[in-house]
Amino acid sequence: MSNLDRQAALSVCGGRGFVVADPVRELLNPRRVRLGESTEVRRLLPNLGRRMVGAWCFVDHYGPDDIAGEPGMQVPPHPHMGLQTVSWLHQGEVLHRDSTGSLRTIRPGELGLMTSGRAISHSEESPKSRARFLHGAQLWVALPDAHRHAEPHFQHHAELPRVTASGLTATVILGEFAGARSPGSVYTPIVGADLALTRGTGTAVPLEPDFEYAVLSMSGETRVDGVPVLPGSMLYLGCGRGELPLRAESDAALMLLGGEPFEEELIMWWNFIGRSHEEIAQAREDWMSSARFGRVEGYDGGRLPAPELPPVTLKPR
Predict the structure, then answer these.
(1) Which residues form the Pirin N-terminal domain (predicted)?
(2) Which domains are seen in the chain, by residue range?
(3) Is 105 helix (H, G, I), strand (E, B) or coil?
């Protein structure tokens, strides 16, 4: 999924200066962003004062949206560099196409994982034959320097490992959780898990004390370490926890996101992650000149033009 902001801001991310070493309860409210004609997303990362959670650097939550008679998701071909995209659905379908030739329909509970490496482009759209409702999350993972110039590729995993306990089913989307490991490729210590809780469930899930964590509420009413977290909001938890208490006031679903704090300092602009302003500017030029990022075949429409770069030069610090 793309950042469709027409005046995209440069963001300095990464580095341990943003990491909270102790347990905290920091509620992050979303910024509402239009995505195409009929989809509105709630952007949780990057957020004012909070840029990353481990290697997770971008989180959008959308829906549930009734798209009967509507175009649904329509995101034209656009580029990515230096990151992975994670597509996760609770309802509906998304048709993914990319410049490596991948063509795949992603459905609820399936992992769509695109590793951009040095350069890739892709489109996302609601299929013509589709479910009435669309509900999901789109997330990005920053690639460390050793892997950010790798060959681009796409992975689709229809079956993912699950961990169950009384009133809880956890699907391991990325990384490792409670001894179960996702088949998706990862390049830093990280975890992403979908937690489904039945009404009245009180439980505690295991965490890695050296990781920093956040929880995104997808649906229902949940208390996370005693804090009410409503759908479309996210609670940042910091580091230093061995477990996380959860209480479901209704049937509910959460996304647990975490990872080892990302030490490298980054610049994120539009759909690119780099290490310098010059690198970002070159990527924009390459996209606008049709070089490097390849071509998405089969999408009915034109490519998404890049916004203008802001008249400032930023460096990681």
Answers:
(1) 41-141
(2) 11-265 (2.60.120.10)
(3) strand
